[in-house]
Amino acid sequence: MALPTLSVWAQGDDMGVWYSVAADKKINQQFTIGAEGEFRTRNNSKTADRWSAGVNADYKIVRGLKLSASYIFLYDNDPEKITYNTDGSYNNWRPSHWGTRHRLNLSLTGSIDWGNLSFSLRERWQYTWRPERTTDRWDFDNSWWEPTVVNGKGKSVLRSRLQVEYNIPHCKIDPYASVELFNAWSLQKTRYTIGADWKIKKKHVIGLYYRYQNVSSDDDDNEANRHILGLSYKLKF
């Protein structure tokens, strides 16, 4: 799915679409399990960026306080990378390639209702492990392909999200807005989101959102500032 680039985008910003499908099963009043799959694009939605699949579990400790845990398998399309010599000439080129990562999340969410508004604060510890891999790089100096071993690497991030939802009386559409901070000893990135969930029926929910991701210079994942259109579907058993 390719979408046209809009002139209002800031120079250097990218644009992508994120699609997700999820299912939740309520075991009892306190315990819920689920699964989710997601597909992301980048490069103005012309390039596949990521596939992922995961499982999760939620436990309601008390009213307004929930503990969650999840595992996600990530299959990423890493963008190409070019390095240069000190004189400005090309050193080597690594083409785009696919690689795997494994992610664990542990979250604690507190929420409170005030009239038709619902406020929530989620604190999430996220740990991602990238296994060791070998990539081929083109050496311009010697005109040959050079296999390079990239060591495995783990990264922990604290994600803090503040969200407000509005329950429109006698309406199946619930709008919301949120801001989320990613911290790994310093601020890595910030996500601003506005969207709405539409409860078609009791068990079916469709979501639509717009998200802007602002990346700090301290981020080491080589992500770009990005405008994101999100589409989701959730089935509740």
Short description:
This protein is 0% helix and 73% strand.
* Distance between the ends: 30 Å
What fraction strand?
over 45%
**Taking all residues together, what is the mean pLDDT?**
91
Largest sheet: 11 strands, mixed, barrel
Strand order across the largest sheet: 1-2-3-4-7-8-11-12-13-14-15
User: Can you count the helices?
Assistant: 0
Could you estimate the helical fraction of the residues in percent? under 10%
Class by helix and strand content?
mainly beta
Estimate the global geometry from the Cα principal axes: elongated
SSE succession: EEEEEEEEEEEEEEE
- Computed over alpha carbons, the radius of gyration is 20 Å
Characterization of this structure:
It is a single chain. The chain is mainly β. The protein is built from no helices and 15 strands. It has strands at 14-26, 31-42, 47-62, 65-78, 81-84, 90-94, 97-114, 117-130, 133-139, 144-150, 153-166, 173-183, 187-201, 204-215, 226-236. It has an 11-stranded mixed beta barrel with strand order 1-2-3-4-7-8-11-12-13-14-15. A 4-stranded antiparallel β-sheet has the order 5-6-9-10, with no helix packed on it. A hairpin with a 2-residue loop joins strand 13 and strand 14 (204-215). It starts with 13 loop residues before the first strand and ends with a strand.
